Amino acid sequence: MLNWGRRALTVCKRASGGTRQCSQAGGAPDAGEAPPRPQPPGVLGLAAFTKGDPELEHKLKVIMLETEVMRQEGQLVPPQEFMSPPIWGNLLKLGSRSGRRKYLEYLFKTAKAKEHQQEKKEARRQQFEEAKAAMGPREVLGMEEHAQTYGLAANNIFLRFYDTSINHFYNGRLAKACDFGQKLVLDCGFDRHMSRRENQNAAKQLMMLFSDNRFHKDPFDIHYTSLRPESELTQMLQKIIPTMYEPAFPMNVHEGSYLEVFPKGRLVYLTPHCREEMERFDHDAIYIIGGIVDKAFSSLKDLLQENSQV
């Protein structure tokens, strides 16, 4: 007889007349009632990807079994603890077995790279601790002796500029550009037409654009439109720039379209798939660039013409 190891719980209820009624629950389950089966690793949190669809749930189980078989065969598959729900969701979107195999190889190399970085970080920490222990306790100097000591860690004529001070300086440039800079709009409403890798590449390019613009002595006033919080592009960009939604951070993020933010008469959409060629730069105009990576997009021209409603 199975011993379920559950302590009998006393569930007490009060009837409407005030009489206390007690009943016992727990112990072994009733005859014919199966115990709850634990879900396999990776299934938890995947309801957002399967959405209760029986076909998607069946496909997900097949992909999990396929991944485990590849791992047992010695192929390049990341460890089980590395397989998060978003990764299973990406595998669910891939239609071919070869595509899933290449994606798993990429994840395996990424996991190994992170593991090596962690090992190097731990080795550097140990070297620092050993060097610190070899130096011995730091000598405490008096006021006069400290005033006469010259060096990088003591008195010197140079001021140290911390990274925080440098960031404040560059962010101040962007704050000034909000009032006096040339406005530039990034249309980020193409995330649904790009794959995960293209969204990741687009997020990296948006980050590089923000960084290079911040270093310029006369930066643009960049506005990111159609950047919805639930979109894949927004989530990837927020991983790279975690402070993008903070009020003090000089990054203009809009959930709505550029037509809802700026007057339509001043908008100019820049695209190579147009009939009119821009021959003169207008400082009063607001120029728009499509935030899309079109490496594998076949009908980009029609999509840009549909999205550029100016």
UniProtKB/TrEMBL annotation:
Q: Tell me if Mitochondrion is a UniProt keyword of this record.
A: yes
Q: Which locations, inside or outside the cell, does it occupy?
A: Mitochondrion
Does the keyword S-adenosyl-L-methionine feature in the UniProt annotation?
Answer: yes
Q: Show the ranges annotated as biased composition (Low complexity).
A: 25-34
Care to name a GO molecular-function term for this sequence?
methyltransferase activity
**Coiled coil spans:** 106-134
Show the InterPro entries listed in the entry. Answer: MT_TRM10-typ, MT_TRM10-typ_sf, Trm10_C_MTase_dom, tRNA_m1G_MeTrfase_euk
Q: Which GO terms describe its biological process?
A: methylation; mitochondrial tRNA 5'-end processing; positive regulation of mitochondrial translation
Q: Which domain of life is it from?
A: Eukaryota
Which of UniProt's keywords are assigned here?
A: Coiled coil, Methyltransferase, Mitochondrion, S-adenosyl-L-methionine, Transferase, Transit peptide, tRNA processing
- Region (Disordered), start-end ranges: 16-44
Cellular component terms (Gene Ontology) = mitochondrion; nucleoplasm
Known PANTHER family for this protein?
TRNA (GUANINE-9-) METHYLTRANSFERASE, TRNA METHYLTRANSFERASE 10 HOMOLOG C
| Entry protein name | RNA (guanine-9-)-methyltransferase domain-containing protein 1
Lineage in the entry? Answer: Eukaryota, Metazoa, Ecdysozoa, Arthropoda, Hexapoda
